[in-house]
Amino acid sequence: MSAGVDRHDRGTGAGDSRAGRAGHLPRHRPSDGGAGADPQTEPGAGHHGADGAPRSQRGGAGVRSAVCAEGRRHFLLRCAVGTVHPGASVCALRHRGGDPARFCRKSLFYSHHRRDPQMKHLLAVFLCAALLFCISCASSQNSSEDYLTAADAVIVTEDAVSFADASGTTVTITKNPAKTYCLYASFTTLWYEAGGTVDGCVGGDSAVQLYKSHIGRDITGDADVTVLAKSAQAKGWSVETILAGQPSLILCSTAMGGYDTLRAPCEAAGIPIVAVDYDDFADYLKWFKVFCHLNGRPELWESVAMAALSDVNAVIASCPTENAPTVFCMFTGETSLKASTSNTMLGGMVKELGGINIADGMGDAERFDINLEAVYSLDPDVILVQCHTGDADARATVERLYGDNPVWQSLRAVKEGRVYYLDNALFHNKPNRRFVHAYDTLAELLYPTK
User: What is the pTM of this model?
Assistant: First the structure.
């Protein structure tokens, strides 16, 4: 099954048959962001923002993070009340961030007292109380505050904006730069969404596609825009040509060597340069705040960014808080497939929506090679495929690598048709103000009966 633009590649939501329950909140239906509302960015390298906080700690905190993402509490509680034998849950616990040794000690305790109804009842009451305490603590956290942590650190004065960029440097940039160069297409689209225009940008097919889909036109054809390079790959740049234009501000990425290539020459020439990192919704809010104030359009913070935040929070709040679906997130490259943890944009969104990412127990990297037998042992409810290019290419890669593999064919998600290929406009590139559509798409996929 393919999830189109209305489903969002990195989107929010889908579900399984276990998710249809009474008592949950009604589905939130976001309104479209309108023209120019869907800028995107290439995937960032690294899961820590300039504030040093891992993505897993930077947003979407709430009841689900206590009940679903921290699945160990479920296992202990279920063992206590006798619905699951402790020994059967150790493997699953390991893949949900638990400590199997500690769990086994609890299991032995249960085994010793399982014939004692009074002890069993007391243990169940204790664990329920502990679980409710954890839920209440998590519920007291405001997800808006979590998403806004990085944005709140941005300092805006009458004439300038100060913030920590992706290099970890605190920079102060004067508002309304006269001549702006942006050497990363995704950041260019965000700059336009935040009320600005650029005087220099990168070209190439992928960049032009982004400009058309998110700005509404190919800006490389604008008379007052200079194409500075054919791509964001710094190895093809002419530093002399870039500096010769004497820009007032240069925006670039730490990916593909951009910032490292230009930093020293820009400092020597006295040209302000900003390293931008954009990995998730919290990053979007931070950089939108920086950009809209630099462009002299502070009103866009409320009308665009805060509106997006409100819609995203509504989608998250509408998701069930029990019977969390297990999810396997895959990233399709040109020739390979990788497992994605919750430290990636897609994996982080799944976690915020209450899904349990089985890859989190398999490795520490953001992405790593897939062990199909390990996936089979956990048999996820849903498989989400993040498409590097398009749906067709991703399907072809999966078919070539796994099509004849009996382990893949035996997965429940495959047999039940719950393998979803996500729209790369929403889940590979950055959706900007259309993040709500991405979250909503994932929510529908994780919880189809909501």
Answer: 0.70
